[in-house]
Amino acid sequence: MHIYLYPSHKQDMHMFSNKARNAIILSVIAALLFIPFLGRVHLFDWDEINFAECSREMLKLGDYTRIYVNFKPFWEKPPMFFWMQSLSMKVFGVTEFAARFPNALCGIATLVVVFLCGQRIYDKKFGILWALAYGGSLFPNMYFKSGIIDPWFNLFIFLSLYFFILYNWKRNGFDKEGLKKTSLPYVIWSGIFMGLAILTKGQVALMVFLMVLGVYFIYNRFRFYFNWGHALLFLVVASLITLSWYGYETAKNGPWFITEFLKYQYRLFTTHDAGQEGFWGYHYVVLLIGCFPASLFAIPAFFKTPSSSRYDRDFKVWMLILFWVVTLLFTIVQSRIIHYSSLAWFPVTFLAAYSFYKWDRKEMSYKKYAGIFAAVLGGIVSLLLLAVPLIGLNISKLAPYVKDKFAQANMEADVKWTGIEGIAGTIMVITIIVGLRFLKKKEYYKSAWTWFTGTALVIFFAAAMIVPKVERYSQGAAIDFLIQRQGEDCYVNALGYWSYAPFFYTMKEKPANPNAYEEQWLLSGDIDKPVYFVTKIDRVDNYKQYTDLKELYRKNGFVFLKREVPHPKAP
């Protein structure tokens, strides 16, 4: 029996094979960028340690529907990311590597996703440019080496929006080949990813999505571009996904936990947390610096540009709307936190790829200011990276000029610098010079490769050589002390400041005595086992009145105290 493949079938199989091969190659490159050195440095307070501790306690308690931190309910986040982290900890153990590994996988998935999306909308070259821009910009790359929630949250929202855009194109007859399915599957996939986004960080995902759709509705001159039945189907699918937690938790334990979670989501948008205020343009500055170099090369694409087709123009409109919705929404939000605007990395890196793509095809005139701005900001980044090892080598000479008592003591940490750490800054300098040269020669594709690959290498070497040494100054002594307490029958508490480190790095057990949550009881109450305190050198004097506290030692700005169990009084 002979099976004859028609030319269209052969072509489809060949295209699928090429896509699979390209995706595999890109996955390997991304893995080499994001996985090495994940466990080289301790987790950072607050978010990294906070989330890792939630996942550790999820494993410890065997409760996978409620989130706990310090063995008390933590209703700020849904469980999706903690499920990922706890699974990683099951495989790799409760380590820094395990806490960060899910985001390394997210980095691999994100680069493959933007490559495939770019290839589907434009061509292979655009897909490569978008993956380069995302993987070769500062914060987008760095966050894939972290243990925080936002990378997965952003990816799920983007995929939900992307499939809705495909639905819009299919339903409204856009001139895009390759949309062979009916509009229904695109709606379903959009709903699935929205449900996953809500399970990752809450209803803000749906809020952003609906606001983007609303602005597009206005842009579309109030013409309905969707079917109400399909809109209902989207909400049903998203709801079914979220009910895997919301519904099950409510049915199992009642509405209290979910109610508190929803109250927190409301508070997030109406108040600011202490230390999280900022000026009005905070997120624009964060994106400009944090998304370097994509942010600078994206600027020309913000303005009106020639489009080669209806879908070319339309997808750019969607990305611009996403950018402005995210940045304006989180400008209104009272809390100013860097990663709140991180969803905007998708449109920023898209627009950077768009600029290079259009320049290369001579469909858009090159704007010299983009290269000049990139060189200036890149020069500042280079100087900072080159300055770090110089400061490290001469830190004892600089310490007396630092006025902050705690920071000055931090600088006494025994950290060995060799000067080779300057390799990251050197690579940045070379990247700027070569990248500008290609821009001058109008070799835009080569220039994009240079800027983004160079920046990715800068981050790679900085993560390996600089970040671990900087961490030793900021928290190393405290983490070392906490690790030494593992397995010891005692209480450990931060004093005078808040930290999640005493929970995670002592591998804290659930307290049998409820008084253990009361700081005053630990300081002066009738304790049943020894208590260790970690405080800071500029705050220790606030606790002089507690005569039972014995100072063990001081190191790098931290003061370590111990209170023994009081001897029973003689009758």
From TrEMBL:
Transmembrane segments: 20-38, 104-122, 128-144, 151-169, 189-219, 231-248, 282-303, 315-332, 338-357, 369-395, 415-436, 448-467
Source organism superkingdom: Bacteria
Keyword terms, alphabetized: Cell membrane, Glycosyltransferase, Membrane, Transferase, Transmembrane, Transmembrane helix
Subcellular localization(s) per the UniProt record: Cell membrane
GO cellular-component term (any): plasma membrane
InterPro entries named in the record: LipidA_mod_glycosyltrf_83, RgtA/B/C-like
Main localization, broad class: membrane
A Pfam short name: PMT_2
Name of the protein in its database record: Glycosyl transferase
Domain Glycosyltransferase RgtA/B/C/D-like: 77-245
Any one GO MF annotation of this record: pentosyltransferase activity
